[in-house]
Amino acid sequence: MTPADLSLTVLRAVRRAVDDGALRVDVPSRAKVERARPGGVGEYASSIALSLARPAGRSALDVAGILEERLRGVPGLRAVEITGPGFLNFTLLRDVDADLVRGILAAGTSYGHGAALAGTVVRFAPVAESRAVLVVEALVRLLRSQGADAGVGADGGERPHVYPGASGGHGTDAVRWAFLRAAPHDRPLDPGSLLVPHERNPLFRVQYAYSRTRRLLVNARQLGFTPEPGRLGEPGRPGQYVEPGQYGRPGPPEHPDHASPLLRLLRDHPLALLSAARHRAPDRVARQLEAVADALLAFQHTVLPLGDEKPSAAHRSRLALAEAAGTVLAGGLSVLGISAPDRI
To answer: Which residues contact 73 (CB under 8 A, 6 or more apart)?
Structure first.
């Protein structure tokens, strides 16, 4: 809620009080709202009760009490308090979802990195077997992302080894995913199956989901709007809802809580990285990325306006959420040493 929104909210409270006979005054054209002074209560304050007291024939405290009753439970307000001779003081309800998205975009691909393992020293023995090489490389990156002093060899400066074909490319991405997605006690996946661009291919889904976020940003710019964290709003319209992995299939109207699975996964991402580091389990990172990708692919169809619909604040907020999800995917893929292509 902005100060302008808060001013309108106060005016609506005055109008309701006049309409139900609690106050007999002319509704003013504006309600001045300003930042609370240092040492004051709440974040914003208004002296409107003081200005209405004389024409209402009541004390400012009485007027403030009447307005406070009509401001209780207003969306966006955490608390309304009366101080002094009749000042109304407001504490806003923070939009935790928007704060989450802002935090991810500010951190970039380092979102989820931290210092929980600071002071922990981990030294891996040099290895030569292909799977072991990739696992150790990923574990070093993962442990360092959580503040640990991790490396290979006595001083931590050696590289595990370089296996043939480690120079990069989609084939290398497939090999890395095949080895890292499987738990240590499981057989690795078939890298050949990961080269096929299909919804049953988990690597394809993750990389495709990331590329979709880049395309959404391009399409939004063409429509004249950019991402801006805020309230996601309620779609309230038929959409192209798809179950994870079923791209573009028409479906039922959007569920009002369409963004919750994605938000929950993004909020849990730092814990997922820390858990993977503590358990020396890069496969947990891969599974987390699959879950984020599937939730994002189910959400993506709410981002852009449909038909003649004009871009709204909700579209900007959803675009910011999609961008944040893409940022998390790119960061997680980087930990695993896998590319995040803009186009796929």
So the answer is: none
Contact 143, 150 (CB under 8 A): yes
Provide mean pLDDT across the span 135-144. Answer: 96
Does residue 274 sit in helix, strand or coil? helix
* Distance from C-alpha of 218 to C-alpha of 234, rounded to nearest angstrom: 23
Only one residue has tokens 């400066």, namely: 157
Band (pLDDT 50/70/90 cuts) for residue 237 is very low
Confidence of residue 169 (pLDDT cuts 50, 70, 90): low
87-92 sheet: strands from edge to edge: 34-35, 44-46, 87-92, 77-83
Q: Among 154, 149, 190, 195, which residue's Cα sits nearest to residue 171? A: 195
pTM metric for this prediction: 0.70
For 151, the token pair is: 């490396």
**Helix, strand, or coil (residue 341):** coil
Q: Which amino acid is at 14?
A: V
Rg (CA), the chain: 27
- Break the chain down into helix, strand, coil percent, rounded to 5: 50, 10, 40
Task: Read off the pLDDT of residues 3-26 as tens digits, 9 standing for 90 and up.
Answer: 778 899 999 999 999 999 999 999
Angle between the N-to-C axes of helices 60-71 and 3-19, in degrees from 0 to 180, rounded to the nearest 10: 110
Interval 216-238 mean pLDDT: 81
- Please name which of 106, 102, 146 lies closest in space to residue 335, comparing C-alpha atoms: 146
242 pLDDT more than 80: no
Name the nearest CA neighbour of 280 among 161, 155, 175, 146.
146
DSSP tally for the chain: helices H, then strands E: 10, 6
HSE-CB for 180 with a 13 A CA cutoff = 33
- The DSSP secondary structure of 97-151, one letter per residue, reads HHHHHHHHHHHGGGTT--STTTT-EEEEPP--SHHHHHHHHHHHHHHHHTT-EEE
